[in-house]
User: What shape does this take?
Amino acid sequence: MINYTLKQLKYFVAVAESGNVTEASEKLYISQPAISNAISQLEETLNTQLLIRHHAKGVSLTPAGKEMVSYCRTLLSHAEEINGYMIQHSTLISGTINIGCYASLGPIYAPKLIQGFTKLYPEVNFKLFEGDIEELNEALVTGKIEMALMYDLNNNCQIESTKLAKISPHVLLSVKHPLANRKKINLMALQDEPLVLLDLPHSNKYFQSLFEQYDKNPFIKHRTKSIEMLRSLVANGEGYALMNAHVKSNTCFDGSELISIPLSDYATPISLVISKVLGVKLPKRCEAFLEFCIKNFNLDNK
Amino acid sequence: MINYTLKQLKYFVAVAESGNVTEASEKLYISQPAISNAISQLEETLNTQLLIRHHAKGVSLTPAGKEMVSYCRTLLSHAEEINGYMIQHSTLISGTINIGCYASLGPIYAPKLIQGFTKLYPEVNFKLFEGDIEELNEALVTGKIEMALMYDLNNNCQIESTKLAKISPHVLLSVKHPLANRKKINLMALQDEPLVLLDLPHSNKYFQSLFEQYDKNPFIKHRTKSIEMLRSLVANGEGYALMNAHVKSNTCFDGSELISIPLSDYATPISLVISKVLGVKLPKRCEAFLEFCIKNFNLDNK
DNA sequence: TGAAATTACGTTTGGCGTAAGCATG
DNA sequence: CATGCTTACGCCAAACGTAATTTCA
Assistant: This one.
């Protein structure tokens, strides 16, 4: 059980350094009896006499006091260090940002954002987490991550999201597909073809909901949770796929080619957002990153 | 400037470990709002959010909070360690005793006392200081030493002494001296011989005062501050000397022989004492040593 | 007599507990 | 509606300041 306070230690060290309670009290802007009292208490809780009081000639340290001073110095400087470190990281743009990315968005947006930001603030580094929407919400709320780059689903009232951009659904087709040279594609043009469904929570429902306006159900040939598997299947002619973002690479992992074409159908608007837990005060670095993301996407839109 | 308290840190760590303020408050026997409040204050002083509060589901740590917990743990355990160390040394008989010895008494009494005590309490070690009375008083009052083995001169009202034994003056003579076989010697028997004076503060005055009862002044041939020089001079026939303790060795450093014979004259009583600063609470080890010295000398006197 | 400690005492701060309020699952 | 957080409020202890007292050089 610790029964002393950091304040007592601070006063004690000041007195030890001055050799004189009065001088210490002037340095600390605290009255002399207050200091005297604090040290008496410290002595009592430690059951150890630390000072020898001289009349009209200040004080000197007992051997135990001398030991104690050096202990106090290290403890106090350690405490200072912690304080400085925490304050610094709430104020300066440095340290680690723990950021989550929705699996299909991460590879598209995260690297450029991170690179751009660390160019401005080289003291910041990032720790990336990937997951589906549920996992990201969970990670935010349990403090595993401070922010997440994901779709705006508004399904969790503890989460606060900032819109970065509107996302439009795209169709993925093999380059060999007859419609591969279209500028836009309507879902009905593909109604008899097999669909390769991205089978992540929310996204699977979202893509299927696109068919509701036509009262049709798609013919789902494959389901996968992996973006790259999806792209490979499409590039190798296993069907078409729907994605909520525009991947710029036309080559998938096995070298086959595919293409991404905007969907011309009506789609319930969906946004790319950066999210945080509602009401939490973020470290400065995170606030700065949020600002940066907003600015960065506004520039893109121009 | 440190603006947090160890108590706040303690509460915070407890909450972090419980994941739950209520549980922590039960462990700490402190009301739940008190803890909640303390942590809010801590967050404010650090300008950093440490916890994410969930409704009806406890709390979780933010990344900053996670860092802070580990800092707190090391700081608190350091503080515990200091506390434990200081309490232990005020309670247990271990650690270092800083003891001063009057130059001429040290070699005679200190080694046996130290050996006897460390046999009883092997955890204790000694740091020895030697000096004349003034130096020892100074060392006591400035906290350089906790106790001193010296003569009782009662000349410093800040010092508190415990009598260990009465000391009687002895005459040192060369074994070749005609009076070397006496059991006791009267000063007048030596009145025409040269005196080798131990020229330490107080002792020089004391020895010269012995001659006052005869209205004589001694013939001082040599003055020295060193006991061994004194003994060598005497052993080599340069004169007799007076000492306030009985040295048991008859051989001095150069191999010459000398003898120590009690003085039969009246001498103002002088005592061997162990001294400390008036009113200071000594560590347990020092109190134990004081007790040991008292007991040890009482045994000797029987 | 002056310097520098402690003691005495009144004020105020702040830490704690009780009770009420609020939000979520 | 039970859980578990925060807010509100009152109380008391403790920290601080002022002033008086003590003690030694």
About this structure: Residues 20-22, 32-33, 36-37, 40, 53-59, 157-158 of chain A lie near DNA strand C (CB under 10 Å from a C1'). Chain A is about 40% helix and 25% strand. The radius of gyration of chain A is 31 Å. Chain A has three domains: 6-91, 95-165+271-300, 169-268.
